[in-house]
Amino acid sequence: MDKLKVEFLISAMNQKDFSIVKKSNIKSDALLINQTDYEEKSEIQMDDCTLRRISTQERGLSKSRNLAIENALGDICVICDDDFFYNEESNGMIEKAYRDNPEADVVVFAYHSKGQSEKSFFAKKKKLGYLNALRVSSCQITFRRKSIKQHGIKFNEDFGSGSLLYKSGEEHLFLFECLKKNLAIHFDPSYLLTVDFSGASTWFNGFDKKFFYDRGAIFTALSNKYSWLLILQFAIRKYRLYSSTFTFFQAVQEMWKGRNDYLGGGKDGSTNKQCPS
User: Fold this and answer.
1) Most exposed of 142, 150, 155, 188 (fewest Cβ within 10 Å)?
2) Strand ranges, E, within 17-56
3) Distance between CA 46 and CA 19 in Å, rounded?
4) Of 53, 49, 43, whose CA–CA distance to 20 is shortest?
5) DSSP 158-174
6) pLDDT confidence tier of residue 202, bands split at 50, 70 and 90
7) Who contacts 90 (Cβ-Cβ below 8 Å, separation ≥6)?
């Protein structure tokens, strides 16, 4: 059986070389999307691995992800940022997951946290649907390049760190798009990496008005029909975390405002082109 080629798609900024690959303990092919102040392409061989770098003046995490997908060459692609550190056996774990689940188009893994409490994961392998996909972080996502490319799936560039509109939610929109196009998403309980959350977040500044506004837009982009239910469940589930600064009604009100502005174009000038019914 032919070996599956695993390629790590790294999103970073202002990188002068390929040292981030070693820093992340990546021991496979990698494509680095380097958002900086110039345009350039380069490629080197290191330890029998092909490392490529595309430097671009574009900004935004989702734009970086899409550029990586457009230029990826691996059979299996791994979403990667500059604060990830992979296990020694990560390549083998990824390849085994796809060998064991040939029908899987996307496999999400568990991860350890540095700088915050450990996140809980499912104990066993399972297939994920829409609700479970909401629990997934971008650091967990791997996918078959062929499946994503064939179905024209991309990250929504209105969402994600660095976007001019909404600062998060891009991974959930990506996974929902996969599910809408009948791709199979599997969870593997293997711990693939450690994520460093000790630094300042590029998008989360606490439970403020902008946070709730963006959540309302995200839930509406995920599902116009059920956005109200997603807003209510979020307000209930996270109440303990925001109750010192917002009432339940205020949180719902801000999310509803984000929902309505997303649907109507609103003050941000966003559109409803990708909002499912």
Assistant:
1) 150
2) 29-35, 40-46, 49-56
3) 11
4) 53
5) TBSTT-SSBSS-HHHHH
6) low
7) 25, 26, 27, 192, 193
Nearest 5°: the CA angle 149, 150, 151 is: 90
User: What is the signed CA dihedral for 73, 77, 81, 86, rounded to 10 degrees?
Assistant: -120
Do 234 and 247 form a contact (C-beta atoms < 8 A)?
no
Which residue is associated with the tokens 């010192």?
Answer: 244
Query: Residue 135's CB: how many other CB atoms inside 10 A?
Result: 15
- What pLDDT, in 10s, does the model give residues 67-108? 999 999 999 999 999 899 999 999 999 999 999 999 999 999
What gap in Å lies between CA 17 and CA 129, rounded to an integer?
Answer: 39
User: H helices within the chain, ranges in order?
Assistant: 19-23, 61-71, 90-100, 130-133, 145-150, 170-180, 209-222, 227-237, 239-242, 248-264
Residue listed under structure tokens 């999103």? 11
**Angle at which helices 248-264 and 209-222 pack, to 10 degrees?**
50
* Residues 130/180, Cβ–Cβ less than 8 Å: no
SS3 56: strand
Residue 225 contacts residue 180 (beta carbons within 8 Å): no
Pairwise CA distance, residues 99 & 269, whole Å: 45
pTM of the entire predicted model: 0.89
Do 186 and 108 form a contact (C-beta atoms < 8 A)?
A: yes
Averaged pLDDT, 177-205: 86
Q: What is the CATH number of domain 6-196?
A: 3.90.550.10
* Domain boundaries defined on the chain: 6-196, 209-264
- What is the rounded CA–CA span in Å between residue 47 and residue 28? 9
Hunting for tokens 């405002």 — which residue is that? 257
